Protein: NAD(P)/FAD-dependent oxidoreductase
Organism: Psychroflexus salinarum
Amino acid sequence: MKIYDVIIIGGGLAGLTSAIDLSLSGFEVLVIEKDEYPKHKVCGEYVSNEVLPYLKRLGIDIEKTNADQIDRLTLSNRNGKSVNVKLPLGGFGMSRYALDYLLYEKAKSNGVKFQFDTVTDVEFENEKFCIKTNRKELYSELAIGSFGKRSTLDKKLERDFIQYKTPWIGIKAHYRSDDFPSGEVQLHNFEGGYCGLSKTETGAVNFCYLTHYDSFKKEGSVENFNTHILKKNPELKSFLDNSEIIFDKHIAISQVSFQNKSAVENHMLMAGDSAGLIHPLCGNGMAMAIHSAKLLSEEIKAFRKHKNRNQLEENYSKIWKQTFRKRLTFGSLFQRLLLQPKLTNIGMLAVSKSPYLLKKMIQQTHGKPIS
Ligand SMILES: Cc1cc2nc3c(=O)[nH]c(=O)nc-3n(C[C@H](O)[C@H](O)[C@H](O)COP(=O)(O)OP(=O)(O)OC[C@H]3O[C@@H](n4cnc5c(N)ncnc54)[C@H](O)[C@@H]3O)c2cc1C
């Protein structure tokens, strides 16, 4: 029976980064991913620059790609009143279609094995994982759960957060626009949600928003929702009236949950959104997914020497909380502020008058460059 050192369930940013990091240290790694690459995903596609040094160390140089280098933020309230400020650290705009594919190619060239299949169950017995997919059973000493915000596996594992329904849905598409500036990420408020806009490596603009399902359902379709709700913000009206959708249709995800999760579940080590999702307005979920992969890879490398599973699980849970818990709390606070029109206006005024305040706010939901 073949036993891998590590099986990674879910090949998004957290899973692929863990696979690359561990393969560089000689681990035999298998990634099980349900979808083939490349693929579009619902995401704002603005990545904080804090990940650049770590990615470079793994052999991925984002500066050599066509990613849009972003150093400014435009923020508008529901009436379209906006402020434009310089971002302290900045980020880059790259589609998930390209970014996940870049990491996949890197992992493959490092010798990581891939199975394109859906994991249906995970069992832990006699210090080994048995991972069941639609087609077969696979075995490993360690298992990483990096299957994203919400998966049927969460139900199987009876995770607490899955018991609760959530009202949030995310919608996204790429648009062609001659006017949209390079080097800028925009966050526009509308009734019940917010919409992010930024350029990707192809020059297309990623248009992505998060909103409540109930208000969305009333409008019956994305087109109606865009026309009747988003376009009440003149900034969004101007964007939608002067650009052209490139996708055949918008893609959507529902039941986006921001509930607390656990970093270890039935001995499986959780990374990325499987361990906790920050509110998208912070633009830090992808950096957190990549950073959690680094923290986890370090603990797994230490485990190879001490071989104490309890110690591995305790250390990882602790470092995860120390690194991310405060960001999640502030993210949730900022989201509540942004959805209250009066507070948004006060916040925008304060931020436009004091770049220091913006820097402080960003510091609460972002990390330092990951070295
Ligand atoms: C509307 C919205 C906008 C966002 N905007 C931004 C932004 O601008 N900037 C930012 O930094 N973050 C943003 N985020 C957050 C960001 O998208 C996530 O934090 C990031 O994708 C997490 O990566 P991950 O690897 O944990 O999960 P994912 O990228 O979701 O990867 C999980 C993978 O697991 C696979 N999978 C799931 N179940 C199974 C299974 N049973 N078997 C096999 N494979 C499985 C999936 O196919 C998927 O490929 C946004 C989120 C939302 C909802």
Q: What stands out?
A: The chain has one domain: 3-164+256-365. The mean pLDDT is 94. The first strand starts at residue 3 and ends at 9.
